[in-house]
From TrEMBL:
Keywords: Repeat, WD repeat. GO terms for molecular function: actin filament binding. The keyword Repeat applies. GO terms for biological process: actin filament organization; cell migration. WD repeats lie at residues 11-45, 61-103. SMART domains: DUF1900, WD40. Belongs to the WD repeat coronin family. The keyword Repeat applies. This is Coronin.
Amino acid sequence: TGRVDKNVPMVCGHTAPVLDIAWCPHNDNVIASGSEDCTVMVWEIPDGGLTLPLREPVVTLEGHTKRVGIVVWHPTAQNVLLSAGCDNVILVWDVGTGAAVLTLGSDVHPDTIYSVDWSRDGALICTSCRDKRVRIIEPRKGTVVAEKDRPHEGTRPVRAVFVSDGKILTTGFSRMSERQVALWDTKHLEEPLSLQELDTSSGVLLPFFDPDTNIVYLCGKGDSSIRYFEITSEAPFLHYLSMFSSKESQRGMGYMPKRGLEVNKCEIA
């Protein structure tokens, strides 16, 4: 079943539930966690895994006034970590010094932040917010360089991620509560390059993009299937490939780095 022994050693330094974790892309032993205790902690897992519970983080990052629901490492710069809290604030941290080097306050996001994603080169941030706007942000200047109001007409949460060639992919709901996936050119956000309706399930679709194959995987909490699409540079841009189905419904999703997998045996996840 995949269930671990109840006596297995754990990372247990937060004083409230952990809401998000992120493995560091530059160091396989380092993991960041965001919690309801309003802190972000960075941990170093020893080679070979834990033999005893880990209670002492490498560093504790304190700056949020409400729970921290999102942590994302910078894709290219070392020791740079982004966190987003329910205080509607995004902080970018220098993990080496423990200092917040950039703050995007509630003047940028007036409501709950649903998702945050770095561009491949780390030059831009893409966010989705409860105010029904998707924003492209230049973090060094702290300015919004593009935004789209209501990429999906429904009231349920939207997720947005960067994909290839400066495009973004969003998931959301139509006015009739049908689940949708859309592809956008960040330079022309007036109309989507592609908009597809999928089904009427209620779970928010979480997109995972694989830049090596230009394939995006869509999975939702409570779903028993994972759809995947290929993104191309020519119309119709977003191509449905296939669907993986299982008997069990999904409770959570993560994405395994390819360096931990045998890609010769299974080329796509």
